[in-house]
Structure formats: structure tokens, C-alpha cells
Amino acid sequence: MISIHCLGDIQYVTGSADRLFPSVSPPSLIMFYPRSYPDSLLKRVTPLVPFFRGGAALLVAILFLFLSSGPALAQVAVSPSTASGNTIASANTSDNIAVGADGTIYVAYHGGNGIQVVKSMDDGASFSSPVTVTSTNAEVEIDVSSNGAVYVAWVENDRLMVAKSMDGASTFAAAVDAAKLRSLSVHFATDGNNLYFVGREGTKVVVSNDGGQTFQEPPTGQSSIFSDILVDPISRDVIAQFDDPDVTYSVSTDFGTTFGTPITPSDDPYVYYSVGALSSGSQGRFLFVGGGIGSETYKIDLGKETSEIIPAPKAETSQGRSLAADEYGNVVTGYVENARVKFVVSQDLGATFGTPTTVSTTSIAQADINSTNGDVLFLYEENGDIFLRSYGERLRGYGLEVSRSTIDFGSVLLGETSGTESVIITNRTGATVNISSIETDAPFASTDACPTALAASESCEIDVSFSPTTSGGASGSLNINTDLPEGTRVVNLQGEASNEPPTIGTIAHQTITEDGTLGPLNFTVGDSQTAASDLVVTASSDNQDLVPDANITLAGTGADRTVEITPAAGKSGTATITLTVSDGTKSDNTTSETFTLTVTDVPDLAVTDGSPSGLDLTVNVDPGTDNNVVGMFTLSAGSVGATFEAVTLTNSAPGVAGVSVARLFASEDATLDVGTDTKLGEVDVDNSNAPASLAFTAFNEAVDTDTRYVILAIDVDAGASTSGMQFLLDKPSDLTVVGGELATVNGQATATFASLPLSGNVMALPVEMAGFTATPSGGTVELRWQTLTETGNAGFDVERRIGTGSWTSLTRVDGAGTTTEAQTYQFTDRDLPYEAEELTYRLRQVDVDGSESFTKEIVVTPSGARQMELLGTYPNPARTQATVRFAVPEDVSNARLVLYDLLGREVRTHSVSGAGRQQMTLNVDGLATGAYFLRLMGGGHVKTQKLTVVR
């Protein structure tokens, strides 16, 4: 049985529709789903007409008339009556009504008591007592974010003021001064912790991405009047709408950080002071724009960037015009006609509109849609009081009522799963609804215990969770697929994947001396969500003059890392070193640690050697005595603080015999006094073979402004030839002075040196050499040398070394004994190693008393191959292998060696790599006894040698 009921101008039906129309299902009836009302309301209605199975078509038409208009709740007072009056009037348009994801209705108005907010938690049947946000009486706008935060905004003294409530508008925090905004009104939209504001001045968009704690003003490339700003609940894009008077918009896809180039649709819609509404869903994304008095209403396809006029009524005043839209293609247009606020509904994205509904005799009103149950909400003002009417069953897509239209999971750690959020769906159609599937988009997931057939008025619960796998914002939907005409009931899902920043260990403040190196210092990195091996560490310095970034070296792998720092040479001061670890995902996922590096100034060192340019020390050695001074240099510093701790002295004639001990002294003058001077070190020497260097360590001698003489003395055996040694300070690293830096050498400003002599002469040689040369000639090397004087010279051993091998003696050349006349000697080395690339020669001079010394070494590169050459192999005959020597000139490439038998068959082949004289081993094992021919071929040349193989 079905009954039609009336209460004033409210029309509604009770009963079961399928009892009246068992086989009739016109589209208008398919789109109608009866809803329940409070018992108090139902008790007041009286049945008018009973209908039974088989009723006439006329009654069907009458019923359709009632159903298409849909029921409405009676006028509900929103604000308490007050002598001071309350208003929702605006200079342009403001949204004084907002609906939370759970269906809670919030209303903001202003008057003599300032800005106040009330709320309804029963679909607009009643409202709470007002909560005062501020005593300022200013045009106000309200919005509730997907995370449940309620925001109120207004303009006060050209400043944008924002107040926030986190307890469902029960209390509001103190207002925040967000930005300068020269405007009478403000429009804004919210999305989680993201807030977007525009004002009529048209010069800026104000953005907060942290729930109203901080605000930014990104460039928009537009200076016209901003008329509205909207957020796509699915993509979370931000659409800033303005008219100049052409309707134009900009889109931000990065939460308001940047806005794209302003877009004016191709057919150039034209409005002033427009209002906007967004429909984003399976049918596409459309922006609906309504202008001022007498303006058309436009539908803009944001995907195609085109627009068209839709047949919505034109407004007679600006105050009563409003727009609301949803993802199912419903568009609600509010307007004023004959001093009455009316609205029409389109269920097909504005293609057609239904019969107008009169709301009230007023010109101040606003419309909204409750996305949980599909109610059309109208907020309006009459004589200083604010009222609300709710209209049900006007929109398609709401046969299933949802407890939440949007779920905002907030911030969830990357790689983890949120707690579950529940959505309760209720069948309000009056008939069974078949649920084919319940689906979610990744990274969201759902579980449910909903039946496949949900009976009328039956409810079931769906649990949804969020498991982010990538950083940043995520959005999706919970899709409840049914056999209802609209098919799918959608709950929007969104969340933010938070990525905990990585960790980095601390390093204590460090101090080093000038020209020192710090480290490597160890530190650790880690991340609960990223493998340590994937973490990227960078380093920087705030003092590039002292520590350039390029002088900071990072090393290590995984969790264990190191840093090494080399300050600029000669610099001192402090630098703050910043070590930063990043997980490589977002700029805010970094962690930094700093430490201070102090580089202390060190005294400048001055060194003077023993050469004629310095101290000009003349060496005189007396064989059979101790502490013969053979080298000297001085050290001084520009200030105190440096210590001389080690030195390595180079021997110019290693291998000399007759030196048994070397000592190093520090003295106040150039005269060695063994009794009073400080002995720094002592080295025992093999008296048959003096080393190439003498190292003195483990002492500590202060270096200050007073010059200190460093003296090298040796013990010389009786009968020793004294052999022509000279000692050198070869390079700065051979001199260890802690806390000082080299600044002067022999009176010249420099920070380096090479081969500083510690004496002005070489110890006397029994043979005074005038020259020694080695010249390659064909396949030989000619050696020539001359002497100026000789004393007891028994002769010269000519020694040769191949590469880095050992020395071998080639021959003995007799000396002239004792003479003051110049002598000339020569020797030709004819037996050169065929493949040798480098030969080194020296002379070992031997005295008649057996003492000896060595000349300088001469390195010779034998002449390269001028033509193809193949020498005879050896041994020949050969049993298992033979040595092959050959030469290939530079201009021959692709040379090869081939061994042929007497029948001309190739039995061995070898490709030649590179040019020059070469030697190789030829394997003949396994070949039959007999004669063979070895040929070297390349560059059109052929060289042949005979080889006999025997067994």
C-alpha cells in the first residue's frame, strides 16, 4: 500500500512503490528513492489517497508529479532571534554553509554579536547554540576540510584572518593574521591540511599547506578579479576562477605551490562577479559558472577547455544566486525571481533542468549539497534571522546513503598501513539494492560484510585503510557498485604519505692546525623506510675561503660513512660544516648535522740549506775520526709553538763504504760541540754499503724565533776513501715540524722545495770524473767517460741493469792509478738483451786499497726496429720449445708468425702485438721430427728462418 501525505507545502509518499507499479518503471520513477523522516514528522501527516495494484495511468502521473518535486523539511531556525540582527549577505558571494564528510552541516553568519558558527548533526532538523569566533562584524566564509577541521575566514582592516576549530566547531583557536588582502570578502577551499584563499582584489592567491600555521602567496600570472577557488575532491587539483570579464581559470596540481597558465575557454564565456561549482567524477570534470544579474550560466569542460551556456534561470539580484554540483552530474542553481528565492535541479550536468522550487520570500540565500544523503540545502535570511530548508530526493546517485562522503586518512608513514576508517551505507530506496562489488583504488583497501542484496532500510559497514607506497598526496575512491540506475555510489579517499626523515650521527666540534687534514671521521646514517645504501649524503661549508666544498671528501657505504676535510693551504679560521642525508624522495626528507671546524694559525717556518745560496758549508772528512760534519741546515719560526720532530736525509751516493754511524745535532750556532749541543738522533750504518737515506725520528725540538742549526755528522772508518757523498733535504714531507708551515727557503718566500743540498761541496773522490755518457748505436750501446784526476784508481767495473732488475758486471776497465792528467775510457756493450726496452748503466770505481764508489746512473733506450727482422731460433734443433726473436717497425700492423711444415701446411700461428723488438717462446711439442719453416709476415714483407724439430 502507498499513501501520499502533505504537510504545508511538503509532499511525500509512504509505502512500497513496487506494490503500485509491478511492471512500470519509467526513468523518473527509477530515479526516485523514498527516504525516512523523523517519527515526529510522520505522526503529523494524514493519509490522503490509497493506491492499489493496477491503478490508473492518471494516478501514475499524479504520483510522478509528487515524486519529482521531492519532500522538504520545514523551515528550521539556524540563528537565535536577536535585536542586533544576523546576516549572510555579502558584497559579492560567500559560502556561509559547509557540509562535513560525515554530513554535519556548519553555518557561519555575522551581526552585532560578531561572527558566529552553529552546526546540525541531524541533517538540518535542528542546530546547536552559536559559538562566537570573533567580535568583529565582517562578511564571513566557512569551510570544513576532509580531515574534519573547520575554518572560518574574513577580512579585517585589509588583513585576511583565519580561525580554526579541531573539535567540530565547539571551540575556535585565536584567529591567525594570514596575509594582506584588500577585499571586502574572501573565498576559500580546503583539502586536508591545505587551505586556498582568494579575494576580489585579484592580485594574489594565499596558500597554507600546514593547516593554517604558515601562509604563502604563489604567483598566478593573473590580476583580474578572483571570483572563486575550488578543489577537485578526486585529483585534489586546485582551480582558481576569475573573470575579467571573460571567465578564466588556472589549475594547480601541486597543492597550490604553482599555478598553470591562465586558461580562457575557446568560446569566451562572459560574466562579472561569478560564482562557481565543480563536478568531478566518472562523467568528466566540469566547472559551472554563474554570473551577476541577468548573466548566463556556463558549463566549462576542464578537459577540453571549452564552454557552453546551460539553460539555467537568470538571476534578478546578485545576493540570491548560488551554484552547487556533485560528482553524479547533479547541478543545483539558486536564483531570485519576483523577490523569491528559487532553485532548479539538473541531473544531467546542466543539459536540462526540472521544475523550479520556491524556498522563501527573500533575496539572500545560498545552496549546498549534502554528499552523504543527497539533500539539497538552502540557507537564507529573513528579517535578521537565518533559516535552513533541506530538500530530499531531488538528486540522482543517493539511493545509498553513506555516513561519510570523504575519508581523509591524514598523514601515514610511507610503507605502513593506517588504522581502518568505517563507512556505513544505508539503503534508502524502499526496495532491495543488489551490490555487485565494493572496490577501492590502490593504495587504499577495503573489507566489508555487506550482503549482495541490501534490503530496504538495511545498513552495512565497510572498513577502509591506506597503505602508501610513494611519497606525497594520494587520492582514490571507494566504489560501491549496485544495480541502481546511477550504478556506483562513490566515497572519496585521500591521504598523505609521510616519509620520516633519515637520521645522521653527530660529530663533535673539531680543531686542527693550519695545513692539516681532518679525518676521516666516522658517522652513521639510517632511515626506517629507506635502505641505508640508498641514502645520499652531501656536505657543505659556510666558509668557502677556508674550506671549499670541493675539499670535503665523503666515503663509506651503507650505514657507516666518513668525512675527510682538507682546508685551503695557508688558511686559518673557523667553518661550519653541514652534513646532510637525504632519502632521495622529497626536499623535506633530509636531516642535517653541523659541527665547527677550527683551523688554528701556525708559525711560518724558515729553512736555510748548506749550499752556496745558504750556509755554504764546506765539507772536510778525516778518515778514522768521528762526528765529521757533512751537512747542515737551519730552522726558525715567526712565533713560538712549532716543534721539530723528524727528518729524512737523502744520500746522493748510496752504497758507499766506510761510514759506520750518522748523528743529528741541534745547535745554537754553526759549530758542532758534541758536549753541549743536543743530539737529536743516531743511526748505525753498514760500513760496506751506505743507505740511500738516513731517517731520524722520535725527538722533540722547539722551533721559535731563534735560529736553530741542524747538523749532520758521520763516523768515517780509517782508510775509507770518503767516496764523494753529499746529503740532501729532498722534499718538504721529509721534514716534520708540527705546528708550523713552510714559508721561506734560503730567504725566498715559498712553501715547497726540492733537493736542498746540506753542503756546498761533495766529499772528495779519489777519482774526479769529468763526464759519463751512454749512446745507443744500432744493436749496441757505446759507453764513454773521462776523469780529470785519479788517486790510487785500480779501475772501473761497468755495470748494467735491465729494467728494474739486479745489477750485473759487464767488464773491468783498468784505471790509470794516480795521475793529474785527464783520462778517457770507453766500452761498447754488444750483447744487448734483444727485447730490452730500457737499460741502465753505472761505473763502480775501485781504489787500490779496495774502497769503492759509484757514478751516476744513465738510462738508455735501445734503438727501435727500423725494418722487419727475424733472427734464428734457439735451440735449433728443438725438442719441445724454441725461443724466437724478431722485430716489427712502427709502420707495420697486423704482423704474424707462422710455422709451416715441408708440405706448406700451417702448424703454428702467432699474432704479433705492437711494434719493436720482441722475444717469444714457440711451443713445438707434439710436432713430428723434421724440418719446418718459420715466417714473419706483415706490411708486404716476409722473413723466413728454418727450424728443425727432433724427438
UniProtKB/TrEMBL annotation:
<dbReference type="Pfam" id="PF22544">
    <property type="entry name" value="HYDIN_VesB_CFA65-like_Ig"/>
</dbReference>
<feature type="domain" description="HYDIN/VesB/CFA65-like Ig-like">
    <location>
        <begin position="400"/>
        <end position="490"/>
    </location>
</feature>
<keyword id="KW-0966">Cell projection</keyword>
<dbReference type="InterPro" id="IPR026444">
    <property type="entry name" value="Secre_tail"/>
</dbReference>
<dbReference type="InterPro" id="IPR053879">
    <property type="entry name" value="HYDIN_VesB_CFA65-like_Ig"/>
</dbReference>
<protein>
    <submittedName>
        <fullName>Uncharacterized protein</fullName>
    </submittedName>
</protein>
<dbReference type="InterPro" id="IPR013783">
    <property type="entry name" value="Ig-like_fold"/>
</dbReference>
<keyword id="KW-0969">Cilium</keyword>
<keyword id="KW-0963">Cytoplasm</keyword>
<dbReference type="InterPro" id="IPR036278">
    <property type="entry name" value="Sialidase_sf"/>
</dbReference>
<feature type="domain" description="Secretion system C-terminal sorting">
    <location>
        <begin position="874"/>
        <end position="949"/>
    </location>
</feature>
<dbReference type="Pfam" id="PF18962">
    <property type="entry name" value="Por_Secre_tail"/>
</dbReference>
<dbReference type="GO" id="GO:0005737">
    <property type="term" value="C:cytoplasm"/>
</dbReference>
